[in-house]
Amino acid sequence: MKAKKRAGLTVTYIVLILISIIWLFPFFCLVLQSFRSYQGEFGGMVNYLVPKKFSLDSYKFLFQEGSQYTRWYTNTLIIAFVTALLQTIVVICVSYALSRMRFAGRRALMNVWLVLGMFPGFLTMICLYFLLKQLGLTQAGAVPGLILINVASSGMGYYVCKGYFDTIPKSLDEAARIDGASRAQILVQMIIPLAKPIIIYTALVSFMAPWCDYIFASYVAFGHSDSYNVAVAMQRWVWTNDYQGYFTRFCAGGILVAIPVTILFMCLQKYYVEGVTGGAVKG
């Protein structure tokens, strides 16, 4: 019996290792290409994967005055951090209200939001663009425009957070209310400290969406390079005639973009998993 169990574990580990290698191979190639010299030769498959000459030229180019990469990176950070902060606050407030309070139209409101969430956001792109244009939040104002769009509908993403709040005993709220605590005090002083995993999960998800956004960001910026985020800007790089040279710079920029997200997930993975599993208990 032990031999069969050991053999089964061995096969499982082999399969998982093979899957990991297949999954990590593109990222490994991306790292290698980012260190390829701008004048590197691409002849042969082996030489294509492993550069003959390693260089930091692509990384140096990113921080030169003419590249604008630091501006694009700053735009992306501003959009992602402000969106994550505001979206998390909105989602927490909406989830707490739907989890703890009972009011007329509550069930109907949840059902309407659930149905609206099934429609893809692409259906509203044209309407949103003209609305933002009327407010001066396109092209030169694309950064605040993207923040507004990301935060405006964030309350509809209450599902997981509300499910986590439902697992916290309501008797705590009742005891605090008897002692004279207000709803705001209960949320800030009691619920939020107990809901740390779901708050971190919400913040990470809110951060990732604008950090990786390309379609709507390119639509709102619409050719104004100073308002690009990193995804839109680097995609413009690979559209240039000098594809071979800018491809290595594209890889270098992609590595720098991946670093913050990787660090966040490595540091907060425990809370992320707890938030997902805790919020899936009730809905």
Written description of the protein model:
The chain is mainly alpha-helical and 283 residues long. The protein has 2 domains: 2-57, no CATH class; 68-279, MetI-like fold. It contains 14 helices and no strands. It has helices at 2-34, 45-49, 57-62, 69-100, 106-116, 125-134, 142-152, 159-166, 171-178, 183-194, 196-211, 215-221, 230-237, 243-279. Helix 4 (69-100) runs parallel beside helix 7. The protein is globular. It starts with a helix and ends with a helix.
In short:
With 283 residues, the protein is an all-alpha fold. The protein contains 14 helices and no strands.
CATH topology of the largest domain: MetI-like fold
Number of helical segments with 4 or more residues:
14
Main β-sheet, in a few words?
none
CATH class of the largest domain: Mainly Alpha
Topology readout:
Blueprint: H1 2-34, H2 45-49, H3 57-62, H4 69-100, H5 106-116, H6 125-134, H7 142-152, H8 159-166, H9 171-178, H10 183-194, H11 196-211, H12 215-221, H13 230-237, H14 243-279
How would you describe this structure in keywords?
283 residues; mainly alpha; MetI-like fold; globular
